[in-house]
Amino acid sequence: MARWLDVDPEVFRAHFNKKPFFIRHTLANHPLFSLDRLVKLSQDLPPSYVEWRAGGLNVDQDPALTPMNGLSAEETLRQISENRSYLILKWVEHDPEYRRLLDECLDQLAEHSEPLYPGMWKRAAFIFISSPNDTVPYHMDHEHNFLLQVRGHKVVRQWDPDDRFILTDREIEDHYANFKHRNMRYREEFGPTAWTLPLPTGQGLHFPVCAPHWIQNGDEASISFSITFRSRWTRRRELLYHANANLRKRGFKPSPVGENPLEDIWKLSLMQTASFVRRLAGKSQVEKRQY
Ligand SMILES: [Fe+2]
């Protein structure tokens, strides 16, 4: 099996799902990230898996209100250095070649993550292509997540997901159960407590689950490969936040997730009854990546 990643086991053990940390990768010249191959991928994926719009977004911009750039996906990709745009290829594991690459990367990460967070599942990958100096607005992702910088340079500003001034428990609950759009409320007061993390080509960065972040490109076009997965822990957490949202709708005041372990066990057993889960069907966003 090809080994694309260089991971320090001690750093992984110390920081996984707690703090950001860097890994190295050797994907910069991989043919699956050439512009021609990315154009083909954009044509092969279901249309709903390809999103492109004008760049230059505000830090908490609603993606649905972001203007189109007047170009096709292919034009956007081929002229990405000049057209001040971004394009996202979602769930690229739909394509067998990208699926194989994702599996090779995640099999390698699983060697380190399984002893800590067992039950890797829902492997998914995304490719972000964006213009020089573009910004990815402030948001969070609820998967275990590594962002591998394949071309260009970025600076990521990331916050502690356990800092309840930065990210309240209700915001996390709304993200899971009342999702509106992927970008979040940002306040200037958050700035000083951000981790500022340079991401040059060849570097990868770990994002703990629901660590808020926004991203600034350097002065050349950027290609990033996001490799993600879930675990038994993320499943339990999703269920608990959905339980809290449902209890709140019924007039209860549930404890924040993790604050009362006995209450959490009770809420999980509630969620695990088939009828309760069925009532959630159709309202749940848990199956979707919030992109
Ligand atoms: Fe993200």
Name the helicity range.
25-40%
Helix segment tally: 8
Strand elements, count: 12
- How are strands sequenced across the largest beta sheet? 1-2-10-7-12-5-4-3
Which distinct ligands sit in these coordinates? fe (ii) ion
What does this structure look like?
- This protein has 2 domains: 5-231, Cupin (Jelly Rolls), CATH 2.60.120; 234-280, no CATH class.
- It has 291 residues and is of the alpha+beta class.
- The model has no long low-confidence stretch (mean pLDDT 92).
- The strands form 2 sheets. An 8-stranded antiparallel β-sheet has the order 1-2-10-7-12-5-4-3. Strands 6-11-8-9 form a 4-stranded antiparallel β-sheet, with no helix packed on it.
- It has helices spanning 9-15, 35-44, 73-78, 96-113, 169-177, 232-249, 261-271, 274-280; strands at 5-6, 22-25, 50-54, 85-89, 121-130, 135-139, 144-151, 154-158, 195-199, 203-207, 213-217, 222-230.
- Residues 139, 141, 213 line the site of fe (ii) ion (FE2).
SSE inventory with pairings:
Elements: E1 5-6, H1 9-15, E2 22-25, H2 35-44, E3 50-54, H3 73-78, E4 85-89, H4 96-113, E5 121-130, E6 135-139, E7 144-151, E8 154-158, H5 169-177, E9 195-199, E10 203-207, E11 213-217, E12 222-230, H6 232-249, H7 261-271, H8 274-280
Antiparallel strand pairs: 1-2, 2-10, 3-4, 4-5, 5-12, 6-11, 7-10, 7-12, 8-9, 8-11
The structure holds fe (ii) ion.
